[in-house]
Design a protein that fits this description.
Layout lengths: L1 E4 L6 H16 L4 E4 L8 H16 L4 E4 L3 H9 L3 H4 L6
Parallel strand pairs: 1-2, 2-3
Organism: Alsobacter sp. KACC 23698
Protein name: STAS domain-containing protein
Pfam families: STAS_2
Length: 92
């Protein structure tokens, strides 16, 4: 299992790093858990990375779980019009 987290302020480099870690975990057949409890908000690009990971996992017999998404994260998905898409990702 690969445990990842989204911190308060996320830079472009952080997004690339997250994307690569998820991609590597899926390639190795490892489940991914993304902790969103400390997220202060979200950029549209980070939202798309999270949704892409969820969709890739569900279509490829992988495991991707979003753990404790913060209220700010949920508000961001709502603001981007992506709340329904967020709800397709397994959460703890």
């Amino acid at each position: 299992m690969v445990d990842l987290a989204i911190g308060g302020s996320v830079s472009r480099d952080d997004i690339f790093d997250l994307c690569n870690k998820v991609k590597d975990a899926f390639a190795a057949g490892k489940p991914v858990r993304l902790d969103g409890s400390e997220a202060d908000g979200l950029t549209p690009i980070l939202a798309q990375v999270i949704l892409s990971a969820g969709k890739t996992a569900s279509e490829g017999d992988q495991s991707f779980t979003l753990v404790s998404p913060s209220p700010a994260m949920i508000d961001a998905f709502q603001g981007f019009g992506l709340f329904a898409d967020l709800m397709t990702i397994p959460m703890e």
